[in-house]
């Protein structure tokens, strides 16, 4: 059995009256507080407003009234307390506590992946893993073929032919409402319905906001890392190739026997970008998957999905580089299904971290 | 069966504890990361419970939507095999279970910052795998851990503990044997303060003894808070060490 957890008698007036009425326990001084659990840092008077300090609910963050109180804090008698378990963050005079784990909170400009939950009056309600569903107005989607016009009543009637319940899409947060829920838009060809791939979910705290959330991975796979923790893995399309083309495709990491090299496809890609946009924009709401997805590609996609799960299991932030690095580390396991064994996931997580240390690349 | 001694003259209880000793306390958080936003597994003595917090999420019914604050829903599932003898009927709509649910909802309504999650639902689900007295206190601890794991803003920890009164001796954290033969109270203590957010008295208790009962209860609850806090910090440090930003 574990150590004894006994309660020391407290000092103070409240306790005094117990001693009077109850004496037999007071001679057991030898057992009091014999357990070895460390109480952690005691933090009654000192102010914990240092950056990155871990605080838990009800803990005093600072007693300095100059700080403005942000999310995750509350104010009582000129003292700022934490309301969540997380790390202290300071931006100028704004003091907030970032929770370790929480639901996704949308911010304007976020690239998210979502699922249609409800088709309503001139709008779709989209589950983006937040506290509330986001709305996607009929006016903020592209029509097939990229026709630019006001949405008419007939468009309203055929909303289900564009997007219906259960469809996955990627979109950008256009604006936020007063209560914190988001309004989305898909007014760009990089947004819209998702096809040809697999969905995967991780805690949103593991996805770091960055300039680009769509990455082409070795093995002819493209990943869309939604800021909300929803991830879409798909076969690299011509659009994805074209997106990378101007800067030149650099297959990150050594291409160690990836089934279909990303570079081989590019050479055949002679269609100009504008032409591509025109071509693809007619099928943006199509439900048909690409019929040419091979078994090996399906396996590559599942392998990526499983290494992402492994990274999430190890609570490692998910970035483009780490996915590639974890994918390479996973190659020693021939069976894709074995990747989600607990030990294997831990090993992959370790491999990624050590590989990073060896390279010395700050991610 | 011979009658066992509840509290021996040497100051030992049926399970070998002294009057002021807590039971074994083992907790872990984020145990069901795929099933819920926050989860905890708690063993307090022989009480074993799983708590899942889902939300804040879009309510499934329009009637559950409050434009000013979130709705907190607690459901307690006491399994049929949780006691030494398997119960024949389900505990689902038992009066006692419904009462526990109401008490827990009220306790946490005051403590969780519901006003910052308008139009949402926070669904708390507890599964009691094994019970051995002082169940409500354990449930409170489980919910506190799971809510913090879910990142839901709350004013402070609430730690629950039960205290029995044997003759004139308060006994900290009663087990089911003790619970059956003496009157006991359950406390929900707010953080490090001496404020109570729950005082559940299901039996008669002499008023002049209540103060000593509360005193040891509050001290015990503070210890429970420390134990929960150290587990949370351990998790937090691991997470922070892995993150890059």
From TrEMBL, chain A:
GO terms for cellular component: chromatin; cytoplasmic exosome (RNase complex); nuclear exosome (RNase complex); nucleolus. It is found in: Nucleus. Residues 197-238 form the K Homology domain. GO terms for molecular function: RNA binding. Residues 54-91 form the Exosome complex component N-terminal domain. Keywords: Exosome, Nucleus, RNA-binding, rRNA processing. Belongs to the RRP4 family. This is Uncharacterized protein. It comes from Zygosaccharomyces rouxii.
Automatic annotation (TrEMBL), chain B:
GO terms for cellular component: chromatin; cytoplasmic exosome (RNase complex); nuclear exosome (RNase complex); nucleolus. The keyword tRNA-binding does not apply. GO terms for molecular function: RNA binding. Keywords: Cytoplasm, Exosome. Coiled coil: none annotated. CDD domains: RNase_PH_RRP41 (cd11370). One of its GO terms (biological process) is TRAMP-dependent tRNA surveillance pathway. Residues 21-152, 156-219 form the Exoribonuclease phosphorolytic domain. Its main location: cytoplasm. It comes from the Eukaryota. It is found in: Cytoplasm; Nucleus, Nucleolus. Belongs to the RNase PH family. Component of the RNA exosome complex. Specifically part of the catalytically inactive RNA exosome core complex (Exo-9) which may associate with the catalytic subunits RRP6 and DIS3 in cytoplasmic- and nuclear-specific RNA exosome complex forms. Exo-9 is formed by a hexameric base ring of RNase PH domain-containing subunits and a cap ring consisting of CSL4, RRP4 and RRP40. This is Ribosomal RNA-processing protein 41. It comes from Zygosaccharomyces rouxii.
């Amino acid at each position: 059995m574990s150590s004894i957890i006994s309660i020391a008698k407290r000092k103070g007036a409240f306790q005094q009256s117990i001693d009077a009425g109850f004496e037999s326990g007071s001679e057991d001084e030898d057992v009091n507080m014999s357990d070895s659990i460390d109480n952690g840092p005691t933090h009654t008077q000192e102010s914990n407003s240092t950056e990155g300090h871990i605080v838990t609910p009800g803990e005093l963050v600072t007693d300095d009234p100059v700080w403005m109180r942000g999310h995750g804090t509350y104010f009582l008698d000129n003292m700022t307390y934490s309301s969540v378990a997380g790390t202290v963050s300071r931006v100028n005079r704004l003091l907030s506590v970032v929770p370790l784990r929480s639901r996704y909170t949308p911010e304007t400009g976020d690239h998210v992946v979502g699922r249609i939950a409800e088709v309503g009056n001139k709008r779709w309600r989209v589950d983006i893993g937040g506290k509330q569903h986001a709305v996607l107005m009929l006016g903020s989607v592209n029509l097939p073929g990229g026709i630019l016009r006001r949405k008419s009543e007939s468009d309203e009637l055929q909303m289900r032919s564009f997007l219906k319940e259960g469809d996955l899409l990627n979109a950008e947060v256009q604006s936020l409402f007063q209560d914190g829920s988001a309004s989305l838009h898909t007014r760009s060809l990089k947004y819209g319905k998702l096809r040809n791939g697999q969905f995967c979910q991780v805690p949103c705290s593991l996805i770091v906001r960055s300039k680009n959330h769509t990455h082409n991975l070795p093995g002819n796979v493209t990943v869309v890392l939604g800021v909300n923790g929803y991830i879409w893995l798909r076969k690299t399309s011509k659009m994805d190739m074209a997106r990378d083309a101007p800067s030149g495709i650099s297959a990150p990491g050594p291409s160690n026997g990836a089934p279909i090299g990303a570079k081989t496809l590019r050479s055949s890609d002679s269609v100009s970008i504008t032409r591509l946009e025109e071509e693809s924009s007619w099928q943006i709401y199509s439900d048909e998957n690409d019929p040419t997805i091979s078994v090996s590609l399906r396996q590559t996609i599942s392998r990526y999905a499983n290494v992402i799960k492994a990274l999430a299991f190890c609570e490692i932030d998910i970035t483009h580089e780490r996915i590639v690095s974890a994918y390479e580390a996973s190659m020693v396991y021939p069976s894709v299904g074995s990747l989600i064994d607990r030990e294997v996931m831990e090993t992959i997580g370790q491999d990624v971290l050590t590989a990073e240390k060896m390279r010395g690349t700050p991610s | 069966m011979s009658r066992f001694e509840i509290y021996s003259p040497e100051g030992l209880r049926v399970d070998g504890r002294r009057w002021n000793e807590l039971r074994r306390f083992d907790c872990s958080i984020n145990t069901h990361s795929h099933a819920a936003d926050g989860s905890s597994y708690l063993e307090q003595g022989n009480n074993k419970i799983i708590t899942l917090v889902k939300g804040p999420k879009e309510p499934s019914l329009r009637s559950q939507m409050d434009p000013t604050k979130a709705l907190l829903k607690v459901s307690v599932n006491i399994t049929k095999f949780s006691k030494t003898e398997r119960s024949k009927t389900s505990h689902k709509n038992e009066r006692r279970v419904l009462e526990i649910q109401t008490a827990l909802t009220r306790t946490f309504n005051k403590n969780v910052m519901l006003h910052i999650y308008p139009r949402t639902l926070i669904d708390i689900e507890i599964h009691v795998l094994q019970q051995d007295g002082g169940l409500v206190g354990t449930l409170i601890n489980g919910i506190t851990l799971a809510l913090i794991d879910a990142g839901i803003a709350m004013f402070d920890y609430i730690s629950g503990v039960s205290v029995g009164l044997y003759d004139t001796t308060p006994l900290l954290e009663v087990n089911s044997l003790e619970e059956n033969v003496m009157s006991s109270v359950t406390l929900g203590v707010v953080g490090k303060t001496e404020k109570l957010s729950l005082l559940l008295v299901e039996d008669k208790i002499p008023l002049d003894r209540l103060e000593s009962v509360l005193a040891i209860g509050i001290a015990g609850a503070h210890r429970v808070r420390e134990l929960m806090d150290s587990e949370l910090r351990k998790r937090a440090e691991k997470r922070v060490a892995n993150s890059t930003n």
